[in-house]
Structure formats: structure tokens, C-alpha cells
Amino acid sequence: MQSILDKVKKIIVPHEEELNVELFDINCVKLKNSWLIKIFIDSEEGITVDKCQEVSKFIGNRLDDVIEEKYRLEVSSPGIERSLRNDKDYRKYKSYLAEIKITDSQGLKKTHVGYIDDLEEDILYLKIKETQEIIKIPFTEIIKGKLKFEFKNK
Known about the structure:
Layout: H1 4-12, H2 16-19, E1 22-30, E2 35-42, H3 49-66, E3 71-76, E4 83-84, H4 87-92, E5 97-103, E6 109-120, E7 123-128, E8 134-138, E9 142-147
Helix pairs in contact: 1-3
């Protein structure tokens, strides 16, 4: 049996270009009497409320035909503190402030906050915010990465 996640992907992925969005992520949560389907979209131009509404209507009309169960659909952007999922994201957000959670080679969990400096092979170079030191983080040690919002003083 095809999962709800797969059904949603089948609806949106072939239409990303037409909708001018990229599917960033999908979360499906089983509630007491229904499903909560959260779809996160992104675009080079950014995501507006109108774009979320357009995509929600597009998906909702098609989901009704393939899902018999009750569901609630939410469509939004990944947000300003979005997850960094792969090397493409780290390259895209070079020079942005990020929080990187790792498990180092000794098994210790650490969190580093700094600016994405570079990415070579499977090594992330992160310029630590407080010290300006550049550290090397093997991708194999990264548990989770996300952008951090930073207020700029004028």
C-alpha cells in the first residue's frame, strides 16, 4: 500500500516547475481521527502567503482523489532557520550563520555556531562566530545543521 507521503510526493514533484516551487520537506503525522500533512516548499524568489495558498489548493484538490481518510493540509516555507539537509544546502547558504550539531570521533556531542565558510569533499569549514576560528567538520559527524537568524546592527 502506498503511503500518504508517497502520494503527496507523486502529486507535487512532477509539478514543481509549473508551480515555481521546490519541495523542501513533507511531514505526515497520524492524529486521533485524521492525518496532519505538512508540506514545506521553497523558491529562489522566496515563499509568500499567496504562493502557499496556491500550492495548498493545487495539492488539496488532487489529494481528495487519492486519500480516503480525513486530513488537514498545511503548506509553508521551511522558515528562516531552515534545516540544512545536504551538501547542496550548505553550498547554497555559504557565508550564512548556522548551528551545526555533531557527534565527534570520540562520540561526544557538540554544537558549533558559525558561518559556513566552505565545503570541500566531505568536509564543512565553519568560521566560529565568537572566535573567528575556522574549524573542519567531517560530514559524517554532522547530526543536524540549520541556519540561524542573526539581527544585524545598522
